[in-house]
Design goal:
Elements lengths: L1 H13 L8 H19 L1 H14 L24 H5 L8 H27 L6
Helix pairs in contact: 1-2, 2-3
């Protein structure tokens, strides 16, 4: 019932004969509205739509991450989710660079400590 009421209100607003919008814009909006109503008013089509929309609602990171406060042009308008998270598509942030530096320092320190312990203990040989 609520869908029908909303459809009637919006159809009055966007009908090409009764709107203040341009004719092309009004036609496009009215066609979208009719398509949406035909899906939502039919239980079978609505169930298919709900299943489709639930499978496509995957949380994806933004395709453009702007760490350096400037925008770069995107390669294509339709990039996939795997392209969005690939490391070669964006520069490392200062925080990521710092984390990599700390991991490298930790690794070198651990290796140095292991070698130093091995040298001072007589029962372990390299």
């Amino acid at each position: 019932m609520e869908i029908r009421r909303a459809y009637r209100e919006l159809s009055k607003r966007y009908h090409p004969d009764t709107t203040d919008l341009s004719e092309d814009c009004a036609k496009a909006k009215f066609q979208e509205l009719n398509e949406a109503y035909s899906i939502l008013s039919n239980p079978d089509r609505r169930q298919i739509y709900d299943q489709t929309i639930s499978t496509t609602r995957v949380i994806t990171p933004p395709t453009e991450i702007n760490y350096r406060h400037h925008s770069r042009p995107s390669k294509s308008r339709h990039s996939s989710a795997t392209e969005a998270i690939a490391a070669e598509n964006r520069p490392l942030s200062p925080g990521e660079l710092f984390a990599l530096l700390m991991m490298a320092v930790s690794l070198i320190s651990c290796l140095g400590l292991a070698i130093a312990i091995a040298m001072f203990r007589s029962d372990i040989t390299l």
